[in-house]
Amino acid sequence: FPCEVIRNFSIIAHIDHGKSTLADRLLEMTGTIEKKDKGMNKQVLDKLKVERERGITVKAQTASMIHSFGDKKYLLNLIDTPGHVDFAWEVSRSLAACEGALLLVDASQGVQAQSLSVFHAAKDRGLKIIPVLNKIDLPAAQPEVIAAQMQSIFGIDPADVIKISAKSGIGIEDVLRVIIERIPPPQGKIDDPLKAFLFDSSYDRYRGVISLVNIQGGALKKGDKITSCYTRKRYEVVDLGIMYPEETPTTTLLPGQVGYIACNMKESSEAHIGDTLHRVGVPVEPMPGFKPAKAMVYAGVFPVDSNDFLKLEESIKRLTLTDRSVEVMRESSSALGQGCRLGFLGSLHMDVFRQRLEDEYNANVIITAPTVPYKVIWRDGKETFISNPTDFPDVTDSTVQVREIQEPVVKASIIVPQEYLGEMMDLCFTHRGEEIDHRYLDASGSEDARIILTAIIPLGEIVTTFFDRLKSRSSGFASFDYEDAGYRPSKLSKMTFLLNGKPVDALALIVHKSAEDEVGRAWVKKLFKVIPRQLFEVPIQAAVGRRIIARETLKALRADVTAGLYGGHYERKLKHLVNQKEGKKRMKKVGKVDLPQEAFYDILSTK
Ligand code: GTP
């Protein structure tokens, strides 16, 4: 397949607009996969269990198809991109492997927040964009209205819009035709030095990392010695081929082609999305704009039963082999024992990881409150990043040499029907939004017009309760996306919780000044509910520096646990004593206070 008959494209869309369904139809129509029976129509492209349960694509999957058109055979490479805001950066990187993108929009829902962000990502990379309206079979579909909307938002000519139903198969031929007609072929030359763009990777237990590459120039074959522009590590290609739709070995990968390579890369942390590979000794100009993914949400992970730490650590290690974007460090807490501190791309990434840990490794874990990386600027001008509340300096202590605390902020975009504008402005406001602004997406005056609201919001607010509230306060109608907007100075301090005067390290939080009272009171109430009464009175307090923000007092319990039991059934008494003993084993001591590990689970798993 020379370049003229190759097309490299992505499908870009807001979640649920039908990306996987369309990918399936394209693979079926080109005979790459067999048509499946109705009923068991599960997308081949979504593999992980958690993806299926949540209906989102976390790990991108790529496939090649061969399609006859006119008198030629074409090689169409579908480069799939992950479908969530936490992975936005990866999406935009993988787009560099394509020349065109199908911008898929649900004809009943219209343009949503991620339609906008993926459109801009594709536009910025100079890709040919093909607008496609999906789900025209739905009674609620308004293809003309949405096409007009796409014209006013993206400047797309309604005559260029392809109208399809990926579910019932309407218009799929048209999609294949316009991919061939409108998307330019790749440009690489076979005589150029080898230049392979790494846009995705996965992990195989036997062969190590499998990388997906797009050949920008030269040819790649088995036995070739290659190296990475970013890590400078060297490898030898042991296997390569195309994804058709599973791995299919070939002798070479030629310019414009997309395929997999196995090269004894041992850990997924070596495969960086956006990296460029070249032949050892024949350097090339790397693809522009490369930077490694960085963690933006951190949390401690501890086993519910502290004897399970090694097992937990092992499970985490194995999971991170397949997910290069998770950062791992050891952490120990006096309250929770040994654990790991993990860094994630975002809060969904964290949820997905936790669920995989629970599903695949049966790990029962306690996850501490998520924290973002804060920047501390010291009086001597030095800067440090702190992502663990335990390490946060006490800013209320004037002997501590802190000049300023800064926190990461994002530019959030929310798209909602106009009647929710007030609710959404209020939501942004209560989450410390600044520069709140809005404009109409549709011609103003129309009844169901929608609005795009933008605001600068601290990332720390987004990773906790913002998303759930956004959904509930807009009755599920709001769509949301965000991009990095740097760091801003902020009035933040560390809040600690004291039991009988002793701080509990695992419960420390970073809180904004304006929320201190509310957060302090709410957490103290929660602690009051889950902490069992002790033989003595226990004050539960929230403090910022030396200042006590909130307090509850747990009354003392009587010594004999059986004393309160009705009657004198011996067996029942005995059972109770045994239970009490069992419970003792899993108790943690915080000062003089006995705390069951489960109490932490209860405190930390409810928002
Ligand atoms: P992510 O993987 O989360 O990005 O979602 P997706 O964009 O891949 O969406 P998916 O293909 O999983 O489709 C979402 C839902 O829309 C599914 O329930 C599909 O059955 C349904 N759907 C997709 N295409 C059509 C269509 O043309 N018509 C109708 N009625 N439903 C469709």
Structural features:
single chain, 607 residues, alpha+beta, 8-stranded antiparallel beta sheet, 6-stranded mixed beta sheet, 25% helix, binds guanosine-5'-triphosphate
Brief overview, please?
With about 600 residues, the chain is of the alpha+beta class. It is built from 13 helices and 33 strands.
Describe this structure in words.
It is a single chain. Helices cover 25% and strands 33% of the residues. The chain has 13 helices and 33 strands. The protein has an 8-stranded antiparallel beta sheet with strand order 11-10-16-7-8-15-12-13, with helices on one face. It has a 6-stranded mixed beta sheet with strand order 2-3-1-4-5-6, sandwiched between helices. Strands 21, 22, 23, 24, 25 and 26 form a 6-stranded antiparallel beta sheet that branches. Helix 5 (143-154) links the parallel strand 5 (128-134) and strand 6. Helix 1 packs across helix 6, helix 7 crosses helix 8 and helix 11 (516-530) crosses helix 13 (597-605). The longest helix has 16 residues, at 570-585. Guanosine-5'-triphosphate binds at residues 13, 15-21, 46, 55-57, 83, 134-135, 137-138, 165-167.
Content-based structural category: alpha+beta
Summed over residues and divided by their number, the pLDDT gives a mean of 85
Percentage of residues in strands: 25-35%
User: Terminal Cα separation, in Å?
Assistant: 54 Å
Q: What is the helix content?
A: 25-40%
**Integer-rounded radius of gyration:** 28 Å
